[in-house]
Design brief:
- The chain contains 25 helices and 26 strands.
- By secondary structure, it is α/β, with parallel strands linked by helices.
- It has 4 domains: about 55 residues, Phosphorylase Kinase, domain 1 (2-Layer Sandwich), CATH 3.30.200.210; about 190 residues, Rossmann fold, CATH 3.40.50; about 220 residues, Dimethylsulfoxide Reductase, domain 2, CATH 3.40.228; about 130 residues, Barwin-like endoglucanases (Beta Barrel), CATH 2.40.40.20.
- Strand 2 and strand 3 form a beta hairpin.
- Helix 5 crosses helix 14.
- The N and C termini lie far apart (about 55 Å).
Amino acid sequence: MRRTHVRTCHICEANCGILVEMDGDAVRAIRGNPDDVLSRGHICPKATAIADIEADPDRLRRPVRREGTGWVEADWDEAFCDIAARMAAIRAAGGEAALYIGNPSAHNFALGMQLGLLKKALATRNVFSASTVDQIPHQLVQMWMYGHNALFPIPDIDRTQLMLIVGGNPLASNGSVWTVPDVKRRISALKARGGRLVVVDPRRTETAATADTHHFIRPGTDAAFLLGLLVALDEAGLVNPGRLAPLLDPGWKAAWEAFGRFRIEALASWCAVPAEAIRELARALGAGPPAIVYGRMGVSVSPFGALNHWLIQCLNIATGNLDREGGLLFSVPPADVVMASGPGSYGRYRSRVRGLPEVMGEYPVATLADEIETPGPGQVRALVTVAGNPVLSTPDGSRLARALGGLDLMVAVDMYVTATSAHAHWILPPCGPLAKAHYPLLLGPIAVRNFAKYAPPARPLAEGEKDDWQIVAGLAAAIARARGLERPAPVDPEAALDRWLRAGTSGLTLDDLRAAPHGIDLGPHAGGRLPARLRTADGRIHAAPEACLADLDRLREAIAAPRPPGLLLIGRRHIRTNNSWLSNSRRLVKGPDRCTLMIHPEDAARRGIGHGDTVTVTSRVGRVTVPAEVTQAIMPGVVSLPHGWGHGRPGVRLRVAQERPGVSLNDLTDPAALDPVSGNAVLNGTPVEVERAAPA
């Protein structure tokens, strides 16, 4: 019997509403939901891939155990018992366990509620995640300045007059650390009301192509550009925090004293954005109408990730646009993560091999291979990955793949045999996406608008299927039991969500959301949330975090140092991909080859490279061979590879993906390159050499 289910697309951060037409358990059509309170009918191509995932013959339906080069199905009890016994034996022999959590866990409220049980059962400090190749600088700066790592200022694009995007491409990402469906329409509306969009990026991205102004910038130099804007604001007498002034602690004065030691011309020369362009943009930001400075992936995965995000916060404060309608706003969501969780942590302990500080309870993932490979007390001998593919998403993936092959035990909670899970001893596959409930617990609070929306499963669990949260809770219980610990009780996701909703300010319950399948619109965000929303001990904005202020000295040294020769490599994303997760969807991979090396015509000509030629790209840690895409859309001196490719590795069982496997950007990125403040990996600005490949 055909039935239409009202759902939310779980794949990216936009949380678009979808209508899924099903005949029994078979998906017949997926389209945008015109009644959805947030997305209003918009979807991108990724939503249609849900049908491919549900029906994919490569998707695992039962636990599998590796035997030689093959896999053998098993039942859940056998899997849990064997894993728990082997984990206990490893711990008894002095080996350590580790946990890696991939970013899909942020899209799955029920799974996220169980991860604490697994961390406790594993009893390890060796926790890693995709956060340290992504957004950890945001969280760290927010914790230091505002008192909680989840206090994300939200760009109010629907009411602003000027938006500056640095290192972000929301037309490809649908918003990143910013839930904003149909951002293209919102940009059009900004322009229609006389507003302006400015994009600063080493590539003329899809978003930059729609901007009123686009400036190329040398990769890794964003801090100089942002600092130049601050110096230019001061030079023009336009520093005006307005109503925020009484909330600023004495660090605000110290910050400006430090900023004043830099000169715009030197900063402009280093970042390659003209000094007059910096001054003009600073004047526009400080002119009075509401404005936004938003920085995302490009500024996060750089040598100065934390410094960049501090400078961005300073710009929004200095222009009076923080906590202002049309500027950047703080949400008060129906289920409030800020009120229900701790503020975060930094530097409570350090990693065994490289001595890197913990950040938000985890170590930088760039040191995971070190912890596996380096002998001695505390060596990691067992690893559990949950919804993660670090071989493709973290630096020097080839080295990590070799390290995984030497583990005594690896367990992957994954639907597929991927570049990472191919090394596992056990793969525990969750059910398909339509058998899961959905609530945007972590992403709703950073949405462009206040809303609440819950979607129940569109189909029941098939025989032998388990939800992600059931797998993680069951695994945690089995490991705890085998180690003689008290068996942890699983968290009931819906009961916990209902408690969070009832504790919020909206007065909503889970039953209210069940009765409103298209969602409940709670209106636009409001200004004036500060100081009430702050979680600092003194109720003030801590304007100059010590580590960020000190990092200005490192920036000064970098500006004075000789510039390295050769080309700089950056990543990129596409609307039809989502990290490494959708490459087995035939409807998404169709079309021209997207795994190409973008190179500027001048750089190509110097190397005798033509469009479509096969080229070899070499970094300190690796080498890949890929087709060249000669284009004016990339800055001279810069080349670009997309991330999330590289499915041709041995053991991968993704038939569609292996027809166009591409190469992995992270076979070239360097685990030695970190932002020393946040521990975030440096994935942009990798020095590389490019040459035309010799004919086969």
